[in-house]
Specification:
Layout: H1 5-11, H2 17-32, E1 38-40, E2 43-46, H3 51-63, E3 73-75, H4 85-88, H5 92-107, E4 111-114, E5 130-132, H6 135-145, H7 154-163, E6 165-167, E7 181-186, H8 194-208, E8 213-216, H9 222-235, E9 242-243, H10 248-252, E10 261-266, H11 267-271, E11 281-284, H12 291-301, E12 310-313, H13 316-321, H14 323-331, E13 335-337, E14 353-356, H15 359-368, E15 372-375, H16 378-386
Parallel strand pairs: 2-3, 2-5, 3-4, 7-8, 7-10, 8-9, 11-12, 11-14, 12-13, 14-15
Antiparallel strand pairs: 1-6
Length: about 375
């Protein structure tokens, strides 16, 4: 790999052992994937933040590091709300360990905005190079914004934050961002909700695997795009997709689609995912809710009282900017929590069946929470949660 003088000084240990080791990691990753150089990044998003997922050994590794992030960097969701963990019912022993993980990242200069939607917190621009790690955030950044990031592992994203660079391979290169399969949606999607697009993503991810799909026949908005990509990242390994006439690189095209496999998706294939089964909790916000989603939840819950545990998850920054809306939601008995989500919090493991509005959650809840998942619209979630 071609390294500049600053990189070589870091490798020589002139900026400390931690930076030397993490740059060695980045160089090794670059060599494995054929990167010719490192590229400066605009921001990083670091996974491996919940104690539920990294455990004691992960915490020990974090505590062994001694450096500071040199670019804006945020954490993925952790296992509990930092300020309201008791209200959520988190075990005190888990809370102590989770707080230790958070403190370790804070010492490393990582912002304690624990979210899978970092694009709501600061502007990310078309063409920005990033080192993001959470699958839905990566998919949104690449597809909806037109930024450039691979799906980094937790250590790789943290290393990039501490150095300010990442290996230039994969989705950082224009040649690797072209469609590889066409998905033709043969359905009337004019009234499709976030849940419908999440169900489409759940189904399409299984069909396309890790290829880059090009969708025709749909016209989603940004929240719907978020749900589509998050679900495909969960059931496949999709980190970039294009939608004809909608996403930035598709608008800038045209792409040469000649010779690509075309997969047709019928309406019935999506509808069958909407099973009506009894649930004992409702959880919305996977990925974390946007302001528009909070508005819809508040409107539908206004004047109602929830009859089941009803969780809403959003980033702290979005909650603070929409506090009146959050207050309206919580008057119903529902709770809006920052920093965590249904997938990474051990609290959700107490339920046998959880209703969600997300294709990503539909995919992850059975494995991560050992619960049955039911998908529905936000309206369905409110109806079931208040009946």
């Amino acid at each position: 790999m071609l390294l500049d003088k600053d990189d070589e000084r870091i490798l020589a240990g002139e900026q400390g052992e931690t930076k030397q080791k993490v740059l060695e990691l980045l160089v090794a990753l670059g060599k494995v994937f054929g990167a010719e150089r490192l590229v400066p990044i605009a921001s990083a998003q670091v996974s491996g933040a919940s104690y539920k997922t990294i455990g004691e050994y992960g915490l020990q590794w974090l505590n062994s590091l001694d450096a500071k992030a040199v670019v804006p960097a945020v954490l993925n969701p952790i296992g509990m709300p930092r300020d309201r963990w008791q209200e959520m019912g988190v075990d005190p022993d888990f809370a102590v360990k989770q707080q230790a993980v958070v403190a370790a990242y804070e010492r490393l200069g990582i912002s304690l905005e624990c979210t899978c939607t970092p694009y709501y917190l600061r502007e990310t621009k078309f063409g920005d190079h990033l080192a993001w790690s959470e699958s839905s955030a990566v998919c949104y950044a690449n597809s909806v914004i037109g930024a450039r990031t691979n799906r980094e592992g937790g250590p790789g994203a943290l290393a990039a934050a501490l150095v300010g660079k990442t290996p230039c391979y994969g989705f950082h290169l224009d040649a690797n961002r072209r469609p590889q399969v066409v998905v033709r949606v043969q359905a009337d999607t004019r009234d499709w909700t976030i849940a419908d697009y999440g169900a489409l993503g759940y189904h399409a991810g299984k069909l396309v695997g890790n290829r880059i799909p090009f969708f025709t026949g749909i016209d989603p908005g940004k929240d719907q795009l978020k749900g589509l990509g998050a679900a495909m990242a969960a059931t496949g390994a999709v980190a970039l997709y294009h939608v004809e006439g909608v996403t930035p690189e598709a608008r800038a095209g045209p792409f040469d689609l000649a010779g690509l496999e075309t997969i047709a998706v019928e309406s019935d294939e999506i509808k069958k995912l909407f099973r009506e089964i009894p649930v004992d909790a409702v959880a919305v916000g996977c990925p974390h809710c946007s302001p528009a989603e909070l508005d819809e939840i508040a409107l539908l819950l206004k004047g109602k009282v929830v009859t089941k545990p009803f969780y809403v998850f959003a980033s702290q920054g979005v909650i603070e900017k929409n506090q009146r809306t959050v207050d309206t939601i919580e008057k119903s008995g529902a709770r809006v929590f920052a920093d965590t989500c249904m997938v990474v919090s051990p609290v959700m493991e107490q339920y046998e069946a959880i209703m969600v509005n997300s294709g990503k959650a539909l995919a992850y809840v059975p494995d991560m929470c050992a619960a049955v998942a039911r998908i529905g619209t936000i309206g369905d979630c409110v109806r079931v949660g208040t009946e």
